[in-house]
Amino acid sequence: MLTSCQGQGVDYIAGVIRNTGGGWQLIDNVDHTPLNIASVETLSDGKIRINYDFAASQVISFTVTPDETYIRYGLTAGARASLDYAMITLSAPLRFYYDTGTGHIVNNFIFGDNVYESEIGMDYVEFTHPPVYGNTMPVYSKISSTSEKQLNITFQPINSTTTRMFISTDLEGQNSAINNGQFVAPAGFITIDLGVAEVDANDVQSVTGNLWIMGIVQ
To answer: I need a surface site. Which of 37, 57, 108, 123 has the fewest CB within 10 A?
Structure first.
């Protein structure tokens, strides 16, 4: 126990956790050692629970930081700290790629293949996906195609888990690239970012990626 500038004792909750496929676990070896963490649980609701090895009287601060492996994919982490445990929630950009040639998703959401085409309508594609938070509108990057034809792409969020994509071959949106459920657009790939979604911690796996934990309590 350390002493704060006010003369009160403070304790640290600290460590590194990793999920290589069997759930999130503490790293405890010659290079890393946990401090005041009794156990780590990967819960069925997609969150991570950090159990302290004592009960605190007050929480001063608690942070969770993805390492250099996970920040490349936009993974973020936040904690809700209690007196004897903390709950970690993960989130990331809901980004995937769509093939206009086949009309199917390729390279699905990196943290779980849980985006899919629920419907191809007369002039749209409807995606079902994990809940998207905030008021951000979906965006897309430049389509890569063997054709020089330009495409105009717009989105219509139906609700937090459903989004429709409209594609036309003119800037006015009059000539749909989808005709009776079939693509007439040039084959190519669209990178689509629907916003930020919560990530199931069970789907975040890496042999090198870590989450760094640091809490200060009294």
So the answer is: 57
Which helix or strand (DSSP H or E) is residue 119 part of?
A: strand 116-120
Burial label, 72 (beta-carbon count in 10 A; 0-12, 13-18, 19+): exposed
Name the residue ranges covered by the structural domains of the chain. Answer: 2-92+200-217, 94-195
Q: Would you list the DSSP string of 36-58?
A: SEEEEEE-TTS-EEEEESS--S-
Handedness of CA 100, 101, 102, 106 (dihedral sign): negative
Give CA–CA dist 212/73, Å, rounded.
Answer: 16
In tens, the pLDDT along 98-124 reads 887 777 887 777 888 788 877 777 778
